[in-house]
């Protein structure tokens, strides 16, 4: 048995002012063919798992290139095609193959390509022909288009948000493709469109219970896999929205019925999944009024780099200073220039510094003041499940009693290391404000006395009605009254 595996992934915020090029992929994670490290990342898990299985089971794995870029704006057309064609050329050179494994994201958009993953699959299918099984792992924040479901043999999405289960889902995908190659199963897919856009954290109800009920239906009566595509609300593409995907062992009727059943169950819970968001001052008041042990974690999802925002909005810090609130930590703030100034000054130095407020009008005004450099790290990383995510060069600074994590690599708050590696102990703060929507829960939930969501005035709103969509297929809730759900594939 010969399998080919590769990865090309990013999450495109089509409203972001930050353009995406190949250089962004190479700065985040680029592993040329055969050079993937011996650890999984959240979009390269199929290759990593297949490598372990190949050693154990004695089949041959041909490893192609792997690309990942931090979420930002639309990708340059030529750069996307160059990366795509690098992988396609490797696949052609590997022929004949018995199966293909792809680690994609599902919400990548390039100029001229609203469905990059569908385009990749179209080219892969043309190369390998109709009989070679293609397996794909996607992020649940994907646009699960009809095209890619019709072109692939099996698609599996992570179930958890935060996405801590990418390795487990890759294991399931590799199992399915290997069994398909061996003729033991014949996967078929059913896709149901809920005709709505929802944010579905699995750290709260009803998302937690829905995913658990979904998972309980797997492995029985020929049901191989069930996935919930949340959709990615910052992507202006026609097939945006929440969809249910069922993979059965050659039982399309059963898959259709189950996808529709779960889709209708999900639709009945509309509007209950996303966490409540309170104004910034109310978030501070709640945190200050709490007598519980541990910090109150205030999440500003509007400036989440994981959703394509700049992560340099200064409104939270500005309001803390205006109200005279200290004993707080805020991060991450993306500002490579300020980081270099602080690294040059050195740990322990007190210097005048301007930081933040650079990328766009939604970044707010820069912060100016005397800061003390608390700590520093070069080429730092933060933890995200079993993965290590780069934060670049980073420093911790203190201004008016507020500790701030400044990063040179734009990323959201995932692990505690954005603070601890630069001399800030978040467990000892009264308030910890993080720029993230839900991935922070894996590391910050265990230390938090409370988690409070606020609107810091950044560009990535949780309220999808604030986005100026032009391409989405309507009617679609919450822009319109909930239309009927429909079976797509």
UniProtKB/TrEMBL annotation:
Keyword Protease: yes
Domain Microcystin LR degradation protein MlrC C-terminal positions: 298-471
Cofactors (names): Zn(2+)
Co-factor binding comment: Binds 1 zinc ion per subunit.
Start and end residues of each Microcystin LR degradation protein MlrC N-terminal domain: 2-288
Pfam families (UniProt xref): DUF1485, MlrC_C
Keyword check for DNA repair: no
InterPro entries: MlrC (IPR009197), MlrC_C (IPR010799), MlrC_N (IPR015995)
Superkingdom of source: Bacteria
Molecular function GO terms recorded: metal ion binding; metallopeptidase activity
Keywords: Hydrolase, Metal-binding, Metalloprotease, Protease
GO terms under biological process: proteolysis
Similarity comment text for this entry: Belongs to the peptidase M81 family.
Task performed by this protein: Involved in peptidolytic degradation of cyclic heptapeptide hepatotoxin microcystin (MC).
Name of the protein described by the UniProt record: Microcystinase C
Source organism (scientific name): Bosea thiooxidans
